[in-house]
Amino acid sequence: MEHPIPGGLREEERVLVSEQSWRPCPEARRRLRGCLEWVKRQLFRVGEDWYFLFVLGILMATISFMMDLLVSRLYEAHRWLYQEVGDIFVLKYLSWSMYPTALAAFSTGFSQSITPYSGGSGIPELKTILTGVVLEDYLAIQNFGAKVVGLTCTLACGSTVFLGKVGPFVHLSAMAAAYLGKMRTSVTREYENKFKQNEMLVAAQAVGVATVFAAPISGVLFSIEVMSSHFAVRDYWRGFFAATCGAFMFRLLAVFNSEQGKAGWAGCAPPPPFPFTPPGRGGRSIFGVPSPKTTHSFLYPSPETIAAVFKSDLKIDFPFDFLETFFFAVLGAVCGLVGCAYLFCQRWLLAAVKENRLTAKLLATESVQGVCLSAPCTLCVRVSVLCSLRVCVSTPCTLGVRVSMPCAMRVHPIHRARVRASAPCALRVCASTPCPLRVHPMHPACPPASPPSSKPVYTVLVVLLLASITFPPGLGQLMASRLTMKEYLTSLFDNRTWGTLVPNASSVADPPGVDPWGLWQEWCHPSTTIFGTLAFFLLMKFWMLILATTLPLPAGYFMPIFIYGAAIGRLLGETVALLFPQGLRSEGDPHPVIPGGYALAGESVGRVDTHGWGTPTTHTLTPPHPWFSTTGAAAFSGSVTHTISTALLVCEATGHLGHVLPVVLAVLVANAITQKHQPSFYDGTIIVKKLPYLPPIRSRHMASYQVVVEEFMERRVVALAKGGGFEEVLVALDASADAEYPVVESAGSPTLVGTVSRAQLITFLQSHEHPRAPPGEKLATTGTLGDNCAIEPIMLQLSPWTSLHQAHHLFELLKLQRIFVTRFGELVGAVSRAELRRAIEELTNPK
């Protein structure tokens, strides 16, 4: 028979064993531990932000480069397939249309199956998040993987779908920053600060743009203009440091890669137009087709150097003629007018697709099992204005379960014991984490979950239509459809005048493939002129580009409008060259017009003879600076996005800053027209999607200074007395679904004391006795609200006489969601983003 060992003896035995435990080299381990702690102190003395931003820039640059490399391979396979099928019309059509259609369908199906928030660019949602609204699902790590795979497939579709990369990559950078921020807090054991997270998201958006264009300065400025209404200057260094790390790493990867030309520019992932070398003469073969041989031209720097993405040989002896400034202003006005038409039609089509019964059914997101849509269901809970879904709770539950703002898919039960949990139900119901409760529908009228999403079907139909129109033997021959996105820019930025090249090229046979030395020949057609093909391209791509923006796949929309603007500039440049064949003369020798400059922004091209068809020869005249194509690219993209930094972006991408003045002139004129009549592309998407974003107040709305808070505030505010008990709290929670409730001194004295969160009120209810509860559920705890809940003091409040403009400024600057209004300390109302938005809409569109 064993005798029990006394507790003291057992404890003594445990201590003795612990003290006598042997570990090798205790002195060395102690010294090593001390060294590691010293290194950690020294590293974190600089600040962990530096390491975080460095890792973010390197990571996104690597992802961007590898994505471009993979897209280049996929597009080479498509080009090889199209050439290998021969001259059989049906096979050529199938190879041209089915390849991008399959990639786009896979992009949509894969990304939407993981998360429905992976479609589109992500910039409107990220812009909303930066205003203080919580949209956690858009920054989830599973969204990152879905968007990377989906975006790669979208870019591999090439110019058939005509979509880009900028927007989704900014979203990817933000998701990476959010995940790295969580890792940083776990390493440093710090409390996760919302303001710290916002600072890192601001830096992440700059990294996203910089790693696409390898342009850190314009990347930071563009991200600030697009994403922020108010920008803290203290965040400047974060954006520039991270963007510089990303851009530098992106260029280093291009240098280290032997095929630097294929992935040299992230904006247009398909392969660049390098000259082909026949097999047996130093060239390589990919899928049996001669592969491009790396050459060092003005657009493609040698792999041994770090240079601009679009490095050019254009001279700056005389940057631009005085008379050309007039045409730059005209080009800006044209881009502004076309931008207004584009923005209006794009917003109208997005709304029409959502309202149309057929397209709305195809684009409907798959519903979650356990969602009640039946109208007569009295057990359905209230939801936010963002979503029409109503969640049905179990039948015995008589307490209302309401949705917390801003997420309509999360509800918080008032009484935990009366909500049944269900394992198969994937609907999260608790607004305060962590909570394992899940709502299971018990109503017999609740319909089953809808069938799987039909978004890939919509994508197949749209992409098939676009591919059929761009089929090269068909209408595509009038649109240079065989060119890739990068080849479009290369041809449009050509420094020769196409009008003088066409007569000399009339006897040249049409090559079976794209001639990288003569990309301009893709714009030539025997039945029309250069002006006809450019005009037809602009006409067709206008509505095709708008239609492509409705596709539910990860895609960017900046690069397409950039190329479209370059085509506008090229058309105007060719027209000016036709009207002034001898060039423009203000004083001295005339300066010939080079339309390629008008595509970018007015660049002079050294002593170039534009009348030769082959190699440029020396000219005796001092060259002009045309930049029509580049100016058009900067002006149109700037007008659509309401940004000025596109002028610096094109200059930084080409490596020439001497011609920024005419580019800025055109961009300013275009922005002046567009901003007066239409919201930006991203603001328009926010309006159509009805995201909880606060619209800006234009400077011309001077009436915002006359409108005061008293005119639009919410007067019926659910308040709690400091001495309230169970019944008062229950009535308040049942009356509204606010995240926090104001606390006043007493029912007779509405002096505002502070606020209490909804989560604390739920805890207060769960720990108190219900008057009508069964005897087994009675709890012994009693007390008042002031005794058991932590009342937070009010740090900011409005006066009834505060103007709408001042209130709007406070909401934007402090990223507020709701402010209480007091008169001499007494609570008289509240102002939330909903009331403020309605007031601004009534001011903009009075009834």
From TrEMBL:
Which chain regions cross the lipid bilayer? 50-71, 201-224, 236-256, 325-344, 457-476, 557-580
Sorted alphabetically, the Gene Ontology cellular component annotations on this record are: chloride channel complex; plasma membrane
Gene3D superfamilies, per the entry: CBS-domain, Clc chloride channel
Topology of the protein relative to the lipid bilayer: Multi-pass membrane protein
Sorted alphabetically, the keyword list is: CBS domain, Chloride, Chloride channel, Ion channel, Ion transport, Membrane, Repeat, Transmembrane, Transmembrane helix, Transport
- Location (main, coarse): membrane
| Compartment(s) | Membrane
Q: Pfam families recorded for this chain?
A: Voltage_CLC (PF00654)
Q: Does the keyword Ribosomal protein apply?
A: no
Q: Tell me the superkingdom of the source.
A: Eukaryota
Cite the GO molecular-function annotations of the record. Answer: voltage-gated chloride channel activity
Q: Which InterPro entries match?
A: CBS_dom_sf (IPR046342), Cl-channel_core (IPR014743), Cl_channel_volt-gated (IPR050970), ClC (IPR001807)
Q: In its keyword annotation, does this UniProt entry include Cytoplasm?
A: no
**Can you name this protein?**
Chloride channel protein
